[in-house]
Amino acid sequence: MTREVDIWFDPSCPYTWITSRWLVEAATVRQLHIRWHVMSLSVLNEHREVDPEGDTEGYLWGPVRICAAVERRYSQAGLARFFTAYGIRVHQGGQWVEFADALADAGLPTDLATAADTTEFDDAVRASHAEGVALLGDHVGTPIISTIGDGGDPMAFFGPVISRIPRGEEAGRLWDGVVLVAAMPGFHELKGRSPAEPQFGEVTPHSA
């Protein structure tokens, strides 16, 4: 039986990129259907005295606005393709991305890049962000994942925050473990050691 999995992500977060690629990998060895939703670190931090991302220029608005524009015109499939193309350039490739290039890589019209500099899609970004944050609260960040637990009850969790992409059955076992822990009644938080530098490994455009 296929399990529906929803992930809310800010495409600019490197650890979120790794978590998303783990989820894609887990779907190759577990029956998972992934649904993609945008969330925004800019929205999350806008009322805080100090932005923990240090984004004083508002750059982080650009990618999430494009995500919202892509989803509106090309639905889930287009959003997944753009996120993959953007992540390959920015995170795996270490490039200062031109949005039009990432859109072209994803087979999407490059005119969607203009969404980065407008507020046209801000309401859509905020609505999607609010939907994800409502599952846990604004004390967490990106990504948020939700699914149905083995007992049939809805569940959601932040992360997992990992510094490399598990492959194959290792990815599947991590999925099993995360779901087991997050579904435990009363579960709140589990932390490991301080994050290591991200190891992005190889990701192909067909990994979404």
SSE order: EHEHHHHEEH
Number of strands: 4
Q: Trace the largest sheet across and list its strands.
A: 2-1-3-4
- The geometry reads as globular
Going by helix content, strand content and strand pairing, the class is alpha+beta
Contiguous low-pLDDT stretches (5 residues minimum) are none
Average pLDDT works out at: 89
The biggest sheet amounts to: 4 strands, mixed
Proportion in helices: 40-55%
As a whole number of angstroms, the C-alpha radius of gyration is 16 Å
Q: Could you give the distance between the termini? A: 20 Å
| Structure annotation, total helices | 6
- Oligomeric composition of the shown chains: single chain
Textual characterization of the structure:
This protein is of the alpha+beta class. The chain contains 6 helices and 4 strands; from the N terminus they run E-H-E-H-H-H-H-E-E-H. A 4-stranded mixed beta sheet has the order 2-1-3-4. Helix 1 (14-26) crosses helix 6. It is globular, with a radius of gyration of 16 Å. The mean pLDDT is 89.
